[in-house]
Design goal:
Elements lengths: L5 E2 L10 H13 L4 E2 H4 L10 H6 L21 E3 L2 E5 L2 E5 L29 H9 L5 E5 L8 H12 L6 E6 L1 H4 L2 H4 L2 H10 L6 E5 L9 H12 L3 E8 L7 H13 L4 E6 L13 H13 L9 E6 L2 E8 L3 E9 L8 E5 L24 E3 L3
Parallel strand pairs: 5-6, 6-7, 7-8, 8-9, 9-10, 10-11, 14-15
Antiparallel strand pairs: 1-2, 3-4, 4-5, 11-12, 12-13, 13-14
């Protein structure tokens, strides 16, 4: 297949009729629309509930005033332009403000708006910050999508990171293996670059984003295999999204297929309450039920995923439910001393985010100092 053509206007979508295009114009003007020919070839236009269509084609319900543009308050942890440092050992370097396509439920949709100033083209200040902070052992390249960049531009960044002794792990957050696997299969220089900088001692991790089994096409699997062969370690993370993968059978199929090709499931994210995301969001406790049902239908190697929320205060795992209580645990915490903290709240079936539990009545205080209750 030749290089897929990008589609940036609804008028270019043959699967939508003129009425649909007019109806969705306001949505696309508010939250940018972008996809490509390859990804649209996966859509079954005869199915109004097609998951790939839902993933990238605007929906009128996005205009509902619900959520916040920066739902996890990432701006609070931006220490220099283009660099977030929330957890001691990990830094996020925002290397660009473009993706191969735009997920409608994106939690960083603010970056693709005209008044965005969080992403900078020159990341030298961020790299200098990383050099000066020896506690940083992990760097996540994100944005935007790093693989939308030319290999030459991406290599300049990775080369400089590899020259910093205390940086052990470089992670590349990307959905290009799903959006456009030809980015991998048609560019030998990308694979050569991965092979050069993913060493036995310090691997490059590809943080893939496959949201639905339909995305795991033959060419996508080939691209992942080539990345493996080049020495990258690949893991997958996905949000749990209404109408896309909120069926336990669909989610377990995704988990299992990923495990077959050596791409273990890593995190499943609770959809962040970002502006426009009401239509894509699922209550926390329902998410847990879907997640656990999916894991029950998965092999052991496919059960490694954890259901989490990327909250302003840290990465919070949704651990379990009883008839009365919901249980959470901080996997990472911004506040010193809160990592691994266990939290107990009365159940709230209408909660879409951790903040919705803050009004819970205090249950009881246990003797274990690592247990918090709803009022801590």
């Amino acid at each position: 297949m030749p290089k897929p053509r990008y589609i940036t206007k609804l008028e270019q979508l043959d699967g939508l009729d003129a009425q649909d295009k007019m109806r969705l114009k306001e949505v696309a003007e508010r939250f940018v629309f972008r996809t490509n020919e390859y990804y649209m070839s996966l859509v079954d236009w005869d199915d109004p509930d097609d998951p790939i269509r839902r993933l990238v084609v605007p929906d009128e319900s996005e205009l509902e005033e619900w959520g916040h543009l920066d739902a996890s308050f990432e701006a609070d942890y931006t220490v220099v332009p283009g660099l977030e440092h929330k957890y001691t050992s990990t830094a996020l370097l925002l290397v660009n403000d473009m993706c191969g396509a735009y997920c409608r439920f994106c939690f960083r949709k603010r970056l693709f708006m005209e008044d965005n100033d969080e992403v900078v083209k020159d990341v030298s200040e961020g790299l200098a910050y990383i050099r000066e902070h020896k506690e940083i052992s992990n760097v996540l390249l994100t944005g935007g999508d790093p693989l939308i960049m030319s290999t030459g531009k991406l290599e300049k960044i990775i080369k400089q990171l590899r020259e910093i002794d205390h940086v052990q792990v470089i992670r590349v957050g990307t959905k290009m293996p799903a959006f456009n696997p030809y980015r991998i299969t048609a560019d030998p220089s990308l694979l050569e670059m991965i092979q050069k900088y993913s060493t036995f001692e310090k691997r490059i991790y590809i943080m893939a984003h496959f949201n639905h089994p339909v995305e795991l096409t033959d060419i996508a699997v080939e691209g992942l295999g080539l990345l493996h062969k080049a020495g990258a370690v690949i893991i997958n993370q996905t949000p749990l999204i209404a109408g896309i993968n909120d069926d336990p059978l669909v989610l377990s199929e995704l988990f299992n297929k990923l495990s077959y090709i050596g791409v273990p499931p890593y995190y499943v994210f609770q959809c962040r309450p970002t502006l426009g995301n009401r239509i894509y969001s699922i209550p926390v406790e329902r998410s847990y039920e879907i997640f656990e049902q999916a894991r029950m239908n998965s092999s052991g190697l496919a059960k490694r995923a954890r259901l989490v929320m990327s909250h302003a205060t840290g990465k919070i795992q949704i651990v379990g439910l009883t008839d009365t209580y919901a249980f959470f645990k901080y996997l990472r915490a911004q506040r010193e001393g809160h990592s691994s903290r266990f939290l107990v709240f009365e159940r709230n079936p209408n909660a879409y985010w951790f903040d919705d539990y803050k009004e819970a009545v205090e249950i009881h205080r246990l003797e274990n100092p690592h247990v918090l209750t709803g009022t801590d």
